[in-house]
Amino acid sequence: MSIEFRKEYFADERDDNLNEVGKPTQRQDALGHVTGRSPYFDDHLFDGLLHIRCVRSPHHHARIRRIDTSEAERMPGVVRIITGKDVPHNLNTLLSLLDFGLDDEPLLSDKKVAYKGEPVAAVVAETERAARDAVAKVRVDWEELPAVFDVEEAVKPGAPVVNEVYPKNLFVYHGRYDHQKLRYGDVEAGFRQADRIIEGRYQMSPIEQAPTETCGAIAAPETNDRYVVYTSTQALFFSLDTTSKLLKTPSNRLHFIGGTVGGGFGGKVDSLHEPMAVLGTMLTGRPCKYIFDREEEMQVGAPRGAERWYLKDGVMNDGRIVARKFVGYFDSGAYTRLSSYAIIKGVGHLPGPYTIPNVYADVYCVFTNRTPATAMRGFGITGVDFAIEAHMDKVAHEVGIDPIELRILNAYRDGDMKAHRRLAKNTALIECCQVAAEKAKWPISQAASQASSLRDGGGERGRLPAHTATDQNGLVTGFTAQSYAKKSRATQPSATPPPQMARHESAPVTPRVEQPRPQPVQPASAPPPPPAATEQRHTRFSSISGLRRR
Amino acid sequence: MPVKVETYDRVEEAARALSASRSARFLGGGTLVMRAVNAGDQSFDTIIRLRDPDFRTIRMQGDGLVIGAGVTMAALVANRDAAFLATVARVIGGPAIRNMATVGGNLFASGNYGDLAVALLALGATVQLAGSGSRSMPIDEFLRDRDRDRHATSLVQSVTVPRPRDPAAFRFTKVSRVKPKGVSLMSIAALLPQSGGRVQGARVAYGAMGPTPLRAIAVERALEGQALDAAAIDRAAALAVEGIAPPTDALASSWYRAEVAGVHLKRLLAGERR
Question: Domain range holding B106?
Fold first, then answer.
């Protein structure tokens, strides 16, 4: 089937005389892949290569009383056994590189494990088999702890503490709240005004990225006291900086070489292998390889996390949605990794590609005794989009409106204000719906087929709500808003709540001109002036996370 | 601890070596054993191979077919006398697996594997053990004791399968999420010989519905003496998981298996192609 371009849409917003964009092009690595010549990290051979295998927790949650490596150390072929005390800085969170979140995860755990398969020791041996045999001889004295696997169970009082850095099993946002808030207008007022209320509960399971090549890295000593690392990472500099931090080694001593990734899909950003391979090389002076086997890839490799969403819509009898409320739970697993960020991204996306005057969201990043979750293809968006679109169908069914027409009726249009307080631009949902209906031979009304993203947006729809209802629900103490990566000292409890503006002081954002001031001080009666029309032109594509400096 | 490989030319020698060591594994096609070697399985340190040509032959014996335990799935597919088993052998693994996987090995395959053993159970096969304890036993008995470690040191020499008089009396279906090459969410084999329009001597077996392939006794009883009509099929399907506690694994929950078993059984009995 050939691609059909609908160039009649938005022709004046696009330059069709580009050399690459809009034209078929061959992937640069396609020839190598089909001829079997693409070099992967594991194709690099080193004389005297050592193999690293980890001793992993058989329990979902357990305290480590003692790790006895004496028998394993005497096994033939074993060169070195690494435990937590050998890791120079044995606590990290991936996004600390962006100053987001607290260090909460060791490279090798020495006190407690919080998910099945968590590594507590690593064997470096002459052969993979010798490493596996020695792993079987490491004796760990476990004290099993009660475990929690459900997000809503995990946030109940008295639930087992999964992650001691966040004792309530909830990530702390902006140093202030145990969830990410979105407040836009007043949903409760919207619900009162609505003809009917339609609620839904949606959830999805974790999904494994299942790459053909499992995650791994090879490190070797290099000249000038440097280390060379061949890795399957999807995020070379992320892995380099993480290694630098965990091993307290300046990044200019680390020579990282990436290249062909044998399938990533988000599962190769966690940078678990590079630090371990380099540490093995530091401790033995020899090249070391650390790679997941297939079972580890499935059990230990971080998946897309599970999500649960509660949606509540206030709907008029004609199908207009006037209020939408979300309560969401992301299952982060035992550690933060990237789930905290997925929520920021997801909340920026709410309420989906629709213009709804009152939107509310409380989204929780929850720690459970499951495998830590990480990136995968649009994570933070795909889950809630499933919930939103399933709910749109439910609304259409209950109100008795064609599901495509319901979407066109509520679709955002150019110039509309979105709930994250940026103006919608380059919107195309209406046109997508129209073409999908046409292709599926799905009849829609004349009004729906004549609607356009370019018309009837903006104006009233482009203004911020006159009043936004705010609250202090989920306020936490003991965390400071000054930096995401710092926990306040015990001597410095937040006795007086910081001034409202402090919430955003640390965020690395230069607010755009149209960005309204933080909502708590927003006087309900005085909406900010509408955005200058000229402003939109040179900021056509907004960053999804809202964190990018412009 | 390197793994040692011992190769024998005669089945008796291999059987003796296997029974003499508790840390030895017999290598059929290696699709299970080599995976365990690669995963660093600590429960064995010796691999025993056999290159006796008898071990890899299929021959007729009266009404039955004697299949050497070393016969591969590919050889079974290619054998004209074993045509009634070809439909089963053909859905096991992909071509590479079928070229290696053996009939004997399949009897020891657990979990979502072991589809051929399910068919052999429905067909009422007999298993021959080699060596000093050389003897035959019904496959029901063999499978019942399989995981109780009683056969860990026995070598299966061959399997004798009675050939169904009416080829249409034997039916098999494999339910998998990935096609082709997926493992079984469940498999169902049924032998439904008819006499005078009524089922006589029904045997119905499930795979991946318990720790080993097992028989659906309640279904067999419901079918026995009945004409295979819609009413009888409905009654049998309603009893699909009677007395059976399906497992929960990565492919499906116990609940799901229990829910869909009757549906798949009904389609198989009604002869519906899916």
Answer: 53-162
Inter-chain contact B1–A133, Cβ cutoff 8 Å? yes
* Inter-chain contacts counted by CB atoms under 8 A, chains A and B: 18
B-chain residue closest to A136, CA distance: B42
Quote ipTM for the complex: 0.84
- Omega before residue A351 within 30° of 0, cis: yes
> Within an 8 Å CB–CB cutoff, is residue B43 touching chain A?
no
Spell out, as residue ranges, where chain A has pLDDT lower than 50: 483-485, 489-550
**B233-267 confidence digits (pLDDT tens):** 999 999 999 999 999 998 999 999 999 999 999 99
> What's the total number of domains in chain A?
1
pLDDT of residue A534: 38
* A438 in any annotated domain: no
CB distance B1–A293 less than 8 Å? no
Shortest Cα distance, chain A CAs vs residue B41, angstroms = 8
B32: domain CATH number is 3.30.43
Parent domain of A60:
43-145+210-299
Measured distance CA(B212)–CA(B210) in Å, rounded: 5
Helix or strand holding residue A310 (H, E): strand A307-315
pLDDT of residue A23: 80
Contacts of A43 (CB under 8 A, 6+ apart): none
Q: What is the pLDDT of residue A1?
A: 59
Q: What is the CATH number of the domain that holds A228?
A: 3.90.1170.50
pTM for the full model? 0.85
Contact across the interface for B40 and A132, Cβ inside 8 Å = yes
* Residues of chain A found within 8 Å of residue B2, distances taken between Cβ atoms: 129
Question: Chain B partners of A123 at a C-beta cutoff of 8 Å?
Answer: none
- The closest alpha carbon to B155, from B115, B108, B85, B97, belongs to B108
Burial classification of residue B63, based on how many CB atoms lie within 10 Å of its CB (0-12 exposed, 13-18 middle, 19 or more buried): exposed
The residue in chain B having the minimum alpha-carbon distance to the alpha carbon of residue A294 is: B39
Residue in B with minimal Cα distance to A293: B39
Low-confidence residues in chain B, pLDDT < 70: 1, 133, 149-152, 273-274
Same domain, yes or no: B16 and B81: no
Residue in B2, B38, B42 nearest the CB of A136: B42
Q: Which amino acid belongs to residue B240? A: A
* Amino acid at site A512: R
C-alpha distance from B251 to closest chain A C-alpha (Å): 13
